[in-house]
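Thanks for the sequence, V.! I ran DeoR/GlpR family DNA-binding transcription regulator right away. Repeating your input here for the record:
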Amino acid sequence: MNTSYMTERQKIIIRELEIKNKISVVDLALKLNVTPETIRKDLSTLEAKRKLRRIHGGAIQYFGLIKEPHFNKKVGISHNQKKLIGEAAATFIMDGETVVLDVGSTTLHIASSIKNVQNATIVTNSLAAAEILNNRLENRLFDGKVIVLGGTTNPLQRSISGSLTNMLLENFYFDKAFISCGGINKDGICDFNIDEAAASSIMIKKASQVFVVADSSKMNQRALFQIGSFSSIDYVITDSEMPNDWSKDAMVRGLNWVNVGDSQ
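Predicted structure:
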């Protein structure tokens, strides 16, 4: 059997994925005039060939465990879900708090959603988030200050990390930390980049409350480097229900699980 063989329908699915970054079972069934079950079988076949990765209701591009997508690519994946997650997360930021945002594309949407907050201090090692926050400060959408952490830049991820970043983080105390991740599973959260994972780990350690923001494509996925276990996390804000098998685990069951998908 030739495992590289694809049907014409499967080739169309891959072309759609290359254009849109994320595809829906329902949309593909309508476009290709077949049943959703047929599309699900195609997606399962293509996932086995590492052509894509299945998520709830559809699929995204396959990145594997060792390669992180370019930041601009990440921003486009699950954009609407990340926006909803970011908007929900921003409502937890209160007047006078010191808050830290890490470098993920989902925390970018938190930066875009902070408003009507007084005397807040936002700390970040994300160049992209810092730019957004600075613009919002200039336009008086919230009141306070923005602190950009020093360190080594990663232009492809628009991030700052490394030993200097970690040293600076050790000197802060945060009311709240908002942490993104490359994957979330029953062992906790993980990321692709060891330096960024290390920075996020320190943010967790130095925060009174920890919020993980992760869209459904991250569920049951593993990246290379552990950020933290569920024992160190207070909230998960996502666009899906907690996986059924997770709810049997006492440590995971104790989490505050916020599903923004319920509001859609």
